[in-house]
Write a structure and sequence with these properties.
The protein folds into two domains: 92 residues, no CATH class; 202 residues, no CATH class. It contains ten helices and nine strands. The chain is of the alpha/beta class. Strand 3, helix 7 and strand 4 form a beta-alpha-beta unit. The strands form two sheets. The protein has a seven-stranded mixed β-sheet, sandwiched between helices. It has a two-stranded antiparallel sheet with strand order 6-7. Helix 1 crosses helix 4, helix 2 runs antiparallel to helix 4 and helix 3 crosses helix 4.
């Protein structure tokens, strides 16, 4: 009886959260993108001055990543990061209504030879692993990559609220991206790779004590081993890319930043650990392009990754 009452309360809470979220999302869709930019300027002030949120975490991450920066520059970057996060949400709200098959060129540019290199790797008969981080607008990137005709498989951690999770998943899968939960999907991922489906993964999620320990901005962190194992075991390409805002909201730059192919060799392809360290260094260089577009509130470094996992008794 008590358990049933608890479940009903949880269901009601999730439903109320969903209604609030959808109401806010609909409000963003009614606003002009220029209005969203104006509001973003005030959101940055709100979360750095009036209602400081994760201020210590953000400042510590920035200080460790950019030790030569002054405290004022760190504060400015923190404020710009909050502006970016709000604009990111606004862009997600507007993307499905504004970006279509016929006009995507009005919103997205490819620097240098990126367009050809991305297409070449995504059309490779081998399953390509495309990695990026919590940088730029990776949510709109997942929408656009399907819009351009490149279906991918993404592994995500489901949100706690099932209604919001279903809504976000529909957006991500609108143009053919396949979404699987991060845990318990090994068999389906193996089948997808065997079928030649490309993977799109965020490579900067903390993996706990069992992950690969590598340096990221000079500090040890933990990364999921599978990201490097996929291309090495399948002898297939790994592409490091980014999808960042290009000065204005709803204007994006999509780039092929670096690539690794086991068939071509290289020191960084000697092991899963060396490949993991390599793509983390590439992500560092990407973040330096626009530091304010990275999630510095993201707990990328945790002391627990210094503690080796306990070995089971023989």
């Amino acid at each position: 009886m008590f358990a049933e009452g608890t479940e009903n309360m949880q269901y009601a809470r999730h439903w109320i959260e969903y209604l609030v979220f959808r109401g806010f999302f609909c409000l963003l869709q009614t606003l002009r993108i220029e209005t969203c930019e104006w509001i973003a300027n005030h959101v940055g002030w709100l979360f750095t001055k009036l209602i400081p949120f994760r201020t210590r975490v953000i400042d510590d991450n920035l200080r460790q990543a950019f030790p030569t920066w002054s405290s004022e520059r760190r504060r400015q970057t923190a404020r710009a990061m909050w502006e970016h996060l709000f604009l990111m949400l606004c862009e997600v709200a507007h993307a499905s209504r504004k970006i279509h098959h016929t006009n995507w060129r009005d919103f997205i540019s490819f620097p240098g030879d990126s367009r050809r290199l991305l297409a070449q790797n995504l059309l490779d008969p081998r399953p390509t692993t495309v990695v990026s981080g919590h940088f730029g607008n990776f949510e709109v990137a997942s929408y656009v990559i399907g819009l351009l005709g490149f279906p991918t498989l993404a592994l995500v951690r489901p949100l706690d609220n099932p209604f919001i999770n279903r809504f976000i998943t529909r957006f991500r899968a609108a143009h053919g991206q396949f979404i699987l939960p991060r845990k318990g999907s090994a068999t389906k991922v193996a089948a997808a790779l065997e079928a030649g489906l490309n993977l799109a993964l965020l490579c900067d999620q903390w993996a706990g004590r069992k992950g690969s320990r590598v340096e990221f901005f000079g500090r040890l962190t933990s990364c999921h081993k599978a990201i490097a194992v996929f291309p090495l075991s399948n002898q297939s390409p790994l592409v490091v890319s980014y999808f960042k805002r290009d000065n204005r909201a709803m204007k994006f730059e999509c780039a092929f930043f670096a690539g690794a192919d086991p068939l071509q060799g290289g020191e960084h392809l000697q092991s899963s650990l060396s490949l993991t360290q390599w793509y983390n260094h590439q992500l560092e260089d990407i973040i330096r392009l626009k530091p304010e577009q990275y999630w510095w509130l993201h707990r990328r470094w945790k002391n627990k990754c210094w503690i080796p996992p306990k070995r089971k008794a023989a």
